[in-house]
C-alpha cells in the first residue's frame, strides 16, 4: 500500500506540456512519486524530474491536458513509486503504469515494493545454467537461451522482431518447472499492441503471463516506468514465488528515446547523439536485474528487443547493450527478403552462456558439436557464395557446390518455420543432422566419428563426376526437391 504525504501544495507556477512546476516545496527529491488532485476530484500521478531550491519539476504521467494550475493540489509521497507484487499479476493485461486495461479490478498483492528494485548481492548470484527452450529452432540450437541470462534481439525497422518476441513469449518452457512470462511493450502502435494481446492470449488465459502495454500515444514518462514495473513483478514471481520468469521487453530503442526526451526536459547536458551521458548505467540498471539467487529456486531471464536505426549496430543503444548483455540474436534483411522466418543471421548471432545451458544432461549430448559444425559449414558456404559471385558457379569445385546446397538447405529446412509453430528440440536437432548430411563426410570434421557413423554419414564416391557439368546442376535440383519434400513432411 502506498503512503501519501500529508502536505499538499497548491502553488503551481506553470504547466508546460507534460510538466508541472511546483513552488514552495521542501524536502522533495528526484524520482519521488507524486499525486495530483484536480478540482473535479480526478487524480493524476507524476514523478519528480528536477528540484532546484524550492521549485520541483513534475512529469505528469497522464499529461497536463485539462488541468487548471489555480485549482490543483500536489502531494509528494516522500519516496519512489511502489507497486503491489504477487501472483495476482498473472493473467492480467495492464498499461505501462500497471493499471488494468482488461476490464478487471486493480491488481492486489501480498506486499508492495519499490519499482527501482534492489541490487542483487554478487556473492549470492548463481551462474546461469539450464536452458529456456523457446520452440524456435534457430534460437534453441545455435543461440540457446539460458535461465538467468540477458540475451537481446538486434533488429531493424521492417523486420519481424515483434512477431519473434511474441512467439518466444508464447512458446517458451523451462523443462516442466513453474514458468511465467512478463511481456513489456514500449512505444507500440495500437495494431502492434492488439497483435501482442492476440498472440499471447492462450498463455494469458493459462495464468502464465503478465502483459504491460505502453502505446506510442501514451506519456513518455510511462515508457520509462514500463520495464521497471515488468522487472519488479518478475523478481517477486521468481525469487518469492519460485518460478522461472522470462521478461521480454520490446522495444528498448523506444525506451532509450523516451529517456533522451526526459533528459532534455531536465535540462541535462547531452552526450552521443543527444542521449544522456548515463545511458549505459541506466540500461545496465535494467539488464542486470536478471539472474539466479543461491538458495532460491526461481530465475529471471531477460530478452530485450531493440531496433537499430538505419541498421547501424554502432548506434548508442545496440552498442551499449552489447557491452552489458551476454550475446545477441541478430535479424537479417537479406534472410527476410528470401521469405525465411525467423530471419536470423546465424553467423552474427551468439549466446556466450550457451555452453552453460546446453549439451549432455541439459539438452542433447550432440547439441554443442552439431551447433559448432553448422556454423563452421555456414561460414564456408558464405565464402563460397562470395567466390561464386566473382567467378560464377560453373567454376566452383564439386565440394564448393555442395556447400551452396548446404546453405540453401540450412535456410529452408533448418531455420525456416511457421510463426505459430513450436518446434521441439529433438526435431530441430534431427533437421540439423539432415542439413549437415548434404555435405560429404570429409567436410564434417568437427563431429566425432561415432556420431557420424550413428547418423549414416558417408563420402559420396561419385561426387566428382556427379557434380560436374550438367550432372552437377541436376544433382543440385534433386537436392532442392528433396529439401522441399522434407520440409512438407516436418511441417506436418
Determine the N-to-C terminus distance: 52 Å
Strand percent estimate: 15-25%
Overall form: elongated
Give unreliable regions as ranges: 1-5, 461-492
Average predicted local confidence, pLDDT: 89
Structural class: alpha/beta
Helical content stands at: 25-40%
* Main sheet properties: 10 strands, mixed
Quick one: how many beta strands? Answer: 21
Rounded to the nearest angstrom, the radius of gyration is 26 Å
Oligomer: single chain
Count of individual helical segments:
16
Q: What are the salient characteristics of this protein?
A:
492 residues; alpha/beta; seven-stranded antiparallel β-sheet; 37% helix
Task: Describe the structure concisely for a colleague.
The protein is an alpha/beta fold and 492 residues long. Helices cover 37% and strands 20% of the residues.
Describe this structure in words.
The chain is α/β, with parallel strands linked by helices and 492 residues long. It contains 16 helices and 21 strands. The strands form 4 sheets. Strands 9, 11, 14, 15, 16, 17, 18, 19, 20 and 21 form a 10-stranded mixed beta sheet that branches. The N terminus and C terminus are likely disordered.
Give the helices and strands, then pairings.
Elements: E1 8-9, E2 12-16, E3 19-23, E4 33-37, E5 43-52, E6 55-60, E7 73-76, E8 82-85, E9 92-95, E10 111-114, E11 125-126, E12 131-132, H1 137-142, E13 145-146, E14 153-155, H2 161-171, E15 179-188, H3 190-199, H4 201-205, E16 209-215, H5 220-239, E17 244-250, H6 252-266, H7 279-287, E18 291-293, E19 299-307, H8 316-324, E20 327-330, H9 333-337, E21 350-351, H10 354-357, H11 367-391, H12 398-415, H13 425-436, H14 449-454, H15 463-466, H16 469-491
Parallel strand pairs: 9-16, 14-19, 14-20, 15-16, 15-17, 17-19
Antiparallel strand pairs: 1-7, 2-3, 3-6, 4-5, 4-7, 5-6, 8-10, 11-18, 12-13, 18-19, 20-21
Helix pairs in contact: 5-6, 7-8, 11-12, 11-13, 12-13, 12-16
Amino acid at each position: 500500500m502506498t503512503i501519501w504525504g500529508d502536505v499538499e501544495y497548491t502553488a503551481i507556477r506553470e504547466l508546460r506540456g507534460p510538466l508541472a512546476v511546483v513552488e514552495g516545496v521542501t524536502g522533495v527529491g528526484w524520482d519521488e512519486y507524486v499525486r495530483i488532485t484536480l478540482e473535479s476530484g480526478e487524480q493524476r500521478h507524476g514523478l519528480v524530474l528536477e528540484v532546484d531550491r524550492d521549485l520541483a519539476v513534475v512529469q505528469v504521467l497522464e499529461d497536463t491536458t485539462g488541468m487548471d494550475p489555480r485549482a490543483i493540489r500536489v502531494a509528494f509521497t516522500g519516496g519512489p513509486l511502489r507497486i503491489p507484487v504477487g501472483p495476482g499479476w498473472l493473467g492480467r493485461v495492464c498499461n505501462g503504469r500497471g493499471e488494468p486495461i482488461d476490464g478487471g479490478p486493480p491488481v492486489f498483492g501480498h506486499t508492495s515494493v519499490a519499482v527501482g528494485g534492489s541490487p542483487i548481492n554478487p556473492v549470492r548470484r548463481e551462474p546461469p545454467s539450464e536452458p529456456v527452450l523457446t520452440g524456435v529452432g534457430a534460437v534453441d540450437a545455435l543461440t540457446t537461451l539460458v535461465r538467468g541470462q540477458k540475451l537481446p534481439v538486434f533488429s531493424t525497422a521492417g523486420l519481424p522482431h515483434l512477431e519473434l518476441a511474441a512467439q518466444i513469449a508464447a512458446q517458451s518452457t523451462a523443462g516442466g518447472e513453474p514458468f511465467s512470462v512478463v511481456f513489456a511493450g514500449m512505444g507500440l502502435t495500437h495494431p502492434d499492441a492488439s497483435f501482442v494481446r492476440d498472440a499471447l492470449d492462450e498463455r494469458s488465459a493459462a495464468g502464465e503471463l503478465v502483459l504491460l502495454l505502453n502505446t506510442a500515444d501514451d506519456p513518455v514518462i510511462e515508457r520509462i516506468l514500463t520495464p521497471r514495473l515488468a522487472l519488479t513483478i518478475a523478481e517477486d514471481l521468481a525469487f518469492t514465488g519460485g518460478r522461472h520468469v522470462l521478461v521480454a521487453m520490446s522495444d528498448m530503442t523506444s525506451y532509450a528515446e523516451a529517456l533522451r526526451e526526459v533528459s532534455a526536459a531536465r535540462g541535462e547536458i547531452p552526450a552521443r547523439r543527444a542521449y544522456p551521458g548515463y545511458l549505459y548505467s541506466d540500461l545496465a540498471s535494467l539488464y542486470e536485474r536478471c539472474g539466479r539467487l543461491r538458495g532460491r529456486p526461481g530465475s529471471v531471464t531477460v530478452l530485450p528487443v531493440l531496433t537499430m536505426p538505419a541498421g547501424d549496430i554502432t548506434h548508442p543503444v545496440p552498442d551499449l547493450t552489447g557491452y552489458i548483455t551476454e550475446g545477441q540474436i541478430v535479424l537479417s534483411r537479406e534472410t527476410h527478403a528470401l521469405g525465411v522466418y525467423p530471419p536470423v543471421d546465424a553467423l552474427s548471432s551468439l549466446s556466450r552462456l550457451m555452453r552453460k545451458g546446453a549439451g549432455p544432461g541439459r539438452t542433447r549430448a550432440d547439441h554443442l558439436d552439431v551447433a559448432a559444425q553448422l556454423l563452421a559449414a555456414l561460414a564456408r558456404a558464405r565464402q563460397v557464395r562470395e567466390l561464386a559471385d566473382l567467378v560464377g558457379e560453373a567454376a566452383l569445385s564439386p565440394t564448393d557446390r555442395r556447400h551452396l546446397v548446404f546453405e540453401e538447405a540450412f535456410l529452408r529446412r533448418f531455420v525456416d518455420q511457421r510463426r505459430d509453430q513450436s518446434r521441439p528440440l529433438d526435431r530441430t536437432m534431427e533437421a540439423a543432422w539432415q542439413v549437415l548430411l548434404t555435405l560429404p563426410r570429409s567436410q564434417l570434421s568437427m563431429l566425432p566419428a561415432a556420431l557420424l557413423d550413428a547418423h549414416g554419414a558417408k563420402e559420396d564416391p561419385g561426387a566428382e563426376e556427379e557434380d560436374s557439368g550438367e550432372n552437377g546442376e541436376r544433382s543440385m535440383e534433386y537436392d532442392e526437391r528433396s529439401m522441399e519434400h522434407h520440409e512438407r513432411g516436418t511441417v506436418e
